[in-house]
């Protein structure tokens, strides 16, 4: 099956992104551990900086505070950046707790 989050590109672009500076280790079926630097995040996905050695459509599993393990697939890459879409949308209450945990500076948080 594996239908995942069926979001249109327009839906994804409208999602509020929060700037963060979060280093995580993704699990990849071929590469094993993949070190990732998340620079922004939304309830739908996240963007990383740095070369990953992944192809579009490949999947990684990451662990996020307040959310736990969540799978994401690579949507795009360009010039040392990459965008991932979560397999499922993070619930709003969990997402707000996540932002509070990983972005402690309230001036950098988007208004609620």
Folded structure, characterized:
With 112 residues, the protein is of the alpha+beta class. The protein has one domain: Thrombin, subunit H. It has two helices and six strands, in the order H-E-E-E-E-E-E-H. The protein has helices at 9-14, 92-102; strands at 18-28, 32-41, 45-49, 59-64, 68-78, 81-86. A hairpin with a 3-residue loop joins strand 4 and strand 5 (68-78). It starts with 8 loop residues before the first helix and ends in a 10-residue tail after the last helix. The mean pLDDT is 86.
Run of helices and strands = HEEEEEEH
CATH superfamily: predicted glycosyltransferase like domains
Overall outline:
globular
Largest sheet: 6 strands, antiparallel
Task: Count up the helices.
Answer: 2
CATH class category: Mainly Beta
SS-based class: alpha+beta
How are strands sequenced across the largest beta sheet?
Answer: 1-2-3-6-5-4
Q: Can you give the helix content as a percent range?
A: 10-25%
Number of domain modules: 1
The whole-angstrom Rg is 13 Å
Mean pLDDT: 86
Terminal residue distance:
35 Å
CATH topology, by name, is Thrombin, subunit H
Q: Which stretches are poorly predicted, pLDDT < 50 over at least 5 residues? A: none
CATH architecture assignment name: Beta Barrel
Count of distinct strands: 6
Strand proportion: 35-45%
Oligomer classification: single chain
């Amino acid at each position: 099956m594996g239908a995942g989050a069926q979001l249109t590109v327009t839906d994804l672009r409208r999602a509020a992104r929060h700037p963060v500076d979060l280093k995580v280790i993704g699990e990849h079926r071929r590469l094993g551990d993949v070190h990732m630097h998340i620079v922004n995040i939304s309830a739908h996905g996240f963007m990383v900086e740095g070369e990953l050695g992944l192809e579009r459509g490949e999947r990684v599993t990451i662990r996020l505070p307040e959310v736990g393990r969540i799978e994401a697939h690579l949507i795009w890459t360009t010039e040392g950046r990459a965008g991932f879409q979560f397999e499922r949308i993070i619930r709003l209450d969990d997402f707000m707790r996540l932002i509070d945990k990983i972005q402690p500076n309230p001036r950098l948080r988007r208004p609620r």
